[in-house]
């Protein structure tokens, strides 16, 4: 399994709970620092930066072909707008084929354009009710 920021945070949470059960409570910050050292980093900030850079998709640019998932639906399309720094970047996509964003059989809502804010990994900051990112964008291979 590839280590991600989310999985490192989950490890820290599990470590904190295990230590508390064993009678050695630590703060969340202390647990993050312990996990960082376990993975060979000087501190949490160093591990976080390393993971963000390693897990980041290739830099997206206007006109790039992309693939991904929007509200659980696979898509392909083109980047038609980008604004902001790479950590919190607004992206606008024009899809090759509209995706149905409604899961009810008796109703449909097709979208051919998507606008969202994504992080450095290409995942939207907003999540669906099951905790998954609403949008995941990857640069298409040519």
Describe the structure.
With 142 residues, the chain is an alpha+beta fold. Helices cover 27% and strands 30% of the residues. It folds into two domains: 5-54, no CATH class; 65-139, no CATH class. The chain has a five-stranded antiparallel beta sheet with strand order 4-3-2-1-5, with no helix packed on it. Strand 2 and strand 3 (89-100) form a beta hairpin.
Helix and strand topology:
Elements: H1 5-21, H2 28-38, H3 44-54, E1 65-70, E2 73-83, E3 89-100, E4 110-118, E5 135-139
Antiparallel strand pairs: 1-2, 1-5, 2-3, 3-4
> Domains counted in the coordinates: how many?
2
Report the order of strands and helices.
HHHEEEEE
Q: Say what oligomer this is.
A: single chain
- State the share of residues found in helices, binned by percent: 25-40%
What is the overall silhouette?
A: elongated
Biggest sheet, spatial arrangement of strands: 4-3-2-1-5
Mean pLDDT: 87
Question: pLDDT under 50 segments (min length 5)?
Answer: none
How far is it from the N-terminal to the C-terminal residue, by CA?
A: 27 Å
Question: What's the count of strands?
Answer: 5
Strand share of the residues? 25-35%
Biggest sheet descriptor:
5 strands, antiparallel
Which structural class do the helices and strands define?
alpha+beta
Q: Evaluate the radius of gyration.
A: 19 Å
Helices, by number, come to 3
InterPro entries: Glyoxalase_8
Protein name: Glyoxalase-related protein domain-containing protein
Pfam families: Glyoxalase_8 (PF20066)
Domain Glyoxalase-related protein: 4-138
């Amino acid at each position: 399994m590839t280590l991600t920021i989310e999985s490192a945070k989950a490890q820290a949470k599990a470590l904190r709970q295990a230590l508390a059960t064993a009678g050695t409570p630590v703060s969340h910050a202390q647990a993050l620092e312990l996990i960082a050292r376990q993975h060979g980093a000087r501190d949490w900030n160093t591990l976080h930066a390393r993971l963000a850079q390693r897990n980041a998709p290739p830099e997206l640019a206007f006109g790039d072909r992309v693939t991904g998932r929007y509200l659980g639906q696979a898509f392909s399309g083109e980047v038609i707008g980008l604004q902001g720094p790479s950590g919190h970047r607004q992206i606008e996509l024009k899809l090759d084929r509209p995706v149905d964003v409604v899961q009810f059989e008796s109703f449909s809502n097709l979208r051919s354009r998507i606008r969202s804010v994504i992080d450095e990994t290409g995942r939207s900051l907003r999540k669906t009710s099951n905790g998954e990112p609403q949008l995941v964008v990857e640069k298409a291979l040519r």
